[in-house]
Fold this sequence. Notes:
Residues 12-64, 75-127 form the YiaAB two helix domain. The chain is an all-alpha fold. It has one domain (13-129). It is built from five helices and no strands. Helix 1 runs antiparallel to helix 4, helix 2 packs antiparallel against helix 3 (73-96) and helix 2 runs parallel beside helix 4. The chain starts with 9 loop residues before the first helix and ends with a helix.
Amino acid sequence: MKPQLQRPTSAFIGASWLALVVGAATYLIGLWNANMQLNEKGYYLTLLMYGLFAAVSLQKSVRDKLEGTPVTGMYFSLCWISLAASLTLLAVGLWNAQLAPSEKGFYAMGFVLSLFAAVAVQKNVRDVATAGEHRTPADTRSEA
């Protein structure tokens, strides 16, 4: 299967970055203002970082497989397990947290938006890099 070499639009790139910034910022601002112990705040901060890494790593592994780059089954499985673990740990943490239901929903939505946006941003970065590698000399002359 041959990968598409189409560059994403500037609007999609901007929307992806905006979603990542909004998702992560709202999650972090909510965490900063939360009335919880510092160790709880650390738990939720670590989950966000772990979840973002797991989502981006999984997206990269899927893309590598699509493009024919070897990805070991163990690494691919660990990516899925890590993403599932971060979501499960967030769900368990929010279920047991002494927070209002609206706050729990706020954290869950900020987390999921951040994960989705991180995947979109990573895809855009890779698409832009791939499209740049496959440009012809005629493409560069027409831009001058």
